[in-house]
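seq:
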Amino acid sequence: MSWRKHGRVFDPPTQLSWVASHASVPCALPLEDRVRVFFGARDEANRSHVGFFDFDPTDPAASVALDDEPVLAPGGAGAFDESGTMPSWVLRVGDVVWLYTIGWTLGVTVPFYNSVGLARSEDGGASFTKVSEGPLFSRDRVDPYFTASSCVLRTDEAWRMWYLSCTGWTSVPEGLRHRYHIRHARSDDGVAWRRDGTVCIDYGDPDEYAISRPSVVRDRDRWRMWYSHRGPSYRIGYAESPDGIAWTRHDDRVGIDVSESGWDAEMIEYPCVFDHGGRRWMLYNGNGYGASGIGLAELVETD
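struct:
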């Protein structure tokens, strides 16, 4: 497989009051003639908000239509997302748009905790309402440290989720460092989830400590997953599965890497793979975990 980069298509809109930096974890909602992209932006207090822009991936140099207001803001004091909320995955269920989110809470002995949230929109994604003030799920006996970065597909058999699960914190010279990989969950309704600890993408070597942002596509002959993985710095990985549960990593076949210079030369991460207009696309972040903006790539045929 090979991805042709079309360059950076979106910079953090720092002229807005709720954006001081970042356009992280892009989530694509394909529409008839365009794609609506949700992203996480940080305000001056470093709290994430969710905003969106519309663009045409077949003409990425054209103007991007940005909505000036966030569609989701951090929660109130004590809420699971009081320190920030970010998009994680978006899909349409009938006439309603479902947006799975990442809620942030600052910690005391550790830097932060994450949880999985959900909001719904009845106006095509222009505004959202949380399904509850609490998360869909957070840490528990199966996932004892924190959960985040969900990818959700609705199949004929059930709702399927691939999500980040933290397996602990380790001490490094810079302080405490998280370790997380990707697990699987099922649901009958997309709200109540059953987790049993099934690991889909595990650490590849002792230096790898962060595997995140799964993006799963179900093709006729197999399931495919793109994800971020990090040792020294983030790269995008790739895996295949016959059933969506047992996965084999093929990171050497991913077909996309950092550039020689520029906005995505240091790291490349948080892929979102989607089909639109008969073509397969990838949105992703580059340097600084989204501080340098969002890029676009297109899957091209290879011999």
